[in-house]
Amino acid sequence: MSSSVDGNGHSAPIRVSWRFTHIAAGTATTVVKAAPGKLHAIVINTSGASSNTIAVYDDASGTSNQIALIDGTTDEKTLFYDAECVEGISIVSAAGTGADMTVLWV
To answer: Of the four, 12, 20, 33, 67, which is 20 to 30 A from 81 by CA?
Structure first.
């Protein structure tokens, strides 16, 4: 968690209210945010099947500036990134049945 300094020189935490986008299993491409933002985490709620992969991009089209390539067939998990995205956030699920996931962002 980040902090700021109050008027008395004391450090105080900055509270962030994360937004979320739920991506249902089998969804191919999702534009989470079409403008600059911050990718906090991706929660794999239900794993995908048959060699599914999840590509995470810093853009609004899901074609360039790849941040991560996640194996969508592994057990449920939470992956933290806290990545500044200058062009947007998009998720592309490929091969096999996609995982059910939730993306936390601001």
So the answer is: 12
Where are the chain's structural domains? Answer: 17-105
Alpha-carbon distance of 33 to 57, in angstroms, equals 11
Computed on alpha carbons and rounded to an integer, the radius of gyration of the chain in Å comes to 16
The whole-number pLDDT of residue 6 equals 62
76 Cβ contact list (under 8 Å, min separation 6): 43, 44, 45, 46, 47
What letter would DSSP give residue 35?
S
CATH topology of domain 17-105: Jelly Rolls (2.60.120)
pTM for this predicted structure: 0.82
Q: What share of the chain is helix, strand, coil (3-state, %, to 5)?
A: 0, 55, 45
* pLDDT at 60 > cutoff 60: yes
